[in-house]
Design goal:
By secondary structure, the protein is mainly α. It has helices at about 5-25, 30-40, 50-60, 60-75, 80-100, 115-145, 150-175, 185-200, 200-210, 220-225, 230-235, 240-255, 270-280, 285-290, 290-300, 305-330, 330-355, 360-375, 375-385, 395-420, 425-445, 455-465.
Length: about 475
């Protein structure tokens, strides 16, 4: 491995820990939500209704929306690197606060409405970290990666997200398993188990905050700030110096100023970016990921936590498929094929809920649905978020698009339980229809960006805006 590849490997490895924390933080609720429900059900000063449980299970998403909106301003003013450090600190504070929300405020172990509010505030704090990381990690990787490797390297961020989810599935399973033979396991899960699950995130959060200090700032950010020599110094770690200076020159050729108005390149690029983000969520994937144990339990299978781990392994495998094919097959074909296969899986689950088909058919359908997302909308949407927008509006456009993604995520996650309880079949038919619409949208409106430099993509949108 050459020194350039070694430097690139280290930088991307550190950056994708942000993706791992993204996955860890959003999926930890899947194992903890039942313990939380039992804990707050015993509160004497209020009724812990389905509304409260739905809100508590998805409250972090409010922070994700806030963090996504803030990402544009912070990444523009602080830079990509320092914004990611802020995200790491927020991850750590949220993990500790979710573990012990009573700290310094309330009596330990006494459920109350005030404690629930404090707990949700800590979860929202972590959500802000997720919102920042979700926007900045792929942007940072895209701005530092060579054009011919950009799609695959940004896709590793999605791999890290799914790996983080798989890790927390294992952690949650091991936490429960360690006490499975304890006669008081239900009481332990209700009082302690969910706390340990949330607190376990402190370790990767601290590691990320420290390691991000060791990587350089984005060279494109530095060039757009007029720090050309610093940009060249960063790029010289990844390319020969002559090539590094050419890249900096190309950045300036496509950027008339550091920052342009959001619609400087027309409305279409913003619309496409927003709709890619919205479709990634309204196909319903996070409803499956967040509530996987509950879904498998309703199917009548064995230990639902084991099937959740199996789903995590499948998700990892198919994310790797995207990483190794995105530069060969392109972005659009993977999105279209993935959308249609997701529809097949969703309709399959709906069919099993309307007939007497055996439970394994539903399980296979869920796995098809989930696996298809993992080689298409999972990684490829983030690739587009990182490379679709022109250099001079990337920070603000990405912030808007990712904010819409988290708003859509919140809507899907907070409505899934009531919709699922109303009709198992209806909710999957709805997701299946949306998957078909998503395939049509990509086919008609989304451009292929495979093999193009970020500067070439900037030029493409400028020419489109001039043609009207």
């Amino acid at each position: 491995m050459t020194k350039y590849k070694l430097n690139l490997f280290f930088i991307v490895l550190v950056a994708v820990i942000g993706g791992l924390l993204f996955g860890y933080d959003t999926a930890v609720i899947s194992g903890a939500e039942k313990g939380l429900e039992q804990f707050f059900d015993s509160a004497k000063d209020f009724d812990y209704t389905d509304f409260w449980h739905g809100f508590t299970s998805s409250s972090a998403l409010i922070g994700c929306i806030i963090g996504a909106f803030l990402s544009g301003v912070l990444s523009q003013r602080l830079g990509r690197k320092r914004t990611l450090f802020v995200a790491g600190v927020l991850f750590f504070l949220s993990a500790w606060g979710s573990y012990a929300p009573e700290t310094g405020i309330l009596p330990y172990g006494v459920p109350s409405k005030t404690l629930l509010i404090v707990f949700n505030l800590y979860r929202i704090l972590g959500g802000i970290g997720v919102g920042l990381a979700s926007a900045i990690c792929p942007m940072y990787i895209a701005e530092i990666a060579p054009a011919d490797k950009r799609g695959a390297l940004v896709s590793w961020n999605q791999f890290a997200i799914i790996f983080g989810q798989l890790v927390v599935y294992f952690v949650n399973y091991l936490i429960i398993r360690a006490h499975i033979n304890d006669p008081a396991v239900v009481e332990w899960t209700q009082q302690i188990g969910w706390r340990v699950m949330f607190g376990s995130e402190c370790v990767p959060a601290a590691a990320f905050a420290l390691l991000i200090l060791l990587v350089p700032e984005s060279p494109r950010y530095l060039a757009l700030k007029g720090k050309d020599e610093e940009a060249v110094a960063v790029l010289a770690k990844l390319h020969p110096e002559e090539h590094a200076r050419i890249i900096v020159r190309e950045i300036h050729e496509t950027a008339t100023e550091t920052r342009e108005p959001l619609f400087a390149f027309g409305w279409l690029v913003i619309f496409v970016g927003i709709m890619l983000s919205v479709f990634q969520q309204i196909v319903g994937i996070n409803a499956v990921l967040y509530f996987a144990p509950r879904i498998f339990e309703s199917m009548g299978v064995g230990n639902p936590m084991i099937f959740t781990v199996i789903m995590g392994v499948v998700n990892i495998s198919f994310t790797l498929l995207a990483i190794f094919t995105v530069e060969k097959l392109g972005r659009k074909p993977l999105l279209i094929v993935g959308s249609l296969l997701m529809a097949v899986g969703a309709f399959g689950v709906a069919l099993t809920n309307m007939t007497t088909l055996p439970a394994w058919v539903a399980v296979v359908s869920i796995l098809i649905y989930s696996a298809s997302f993992m080689f298409s909308w999972g990684p490829i949407c983030w690739v587009y978020m990182a490379e679709l927008f022109p250099n001079t509006i990337r920070s603000q456009a990405t912030a808007v698009a990712v904010a819409f993604q988290w708003i859509s995520n919140f809507v899907v996650s907070s409505t899934f339980v009531p919709l699922y309880n109303y009709s198992h079949a209806m909710v999957y038919i709805l997701y299946g229809v949306i998957c078909v619409i998503a395939a049509w949208f990509v086919w008609r409106l989304v451009p292929e960006t495979k093999g193009k430099t970020l500067e070439e993509i900037t030029t493409m949108w400028r020419e489109k805006s001039k043609r009207g």
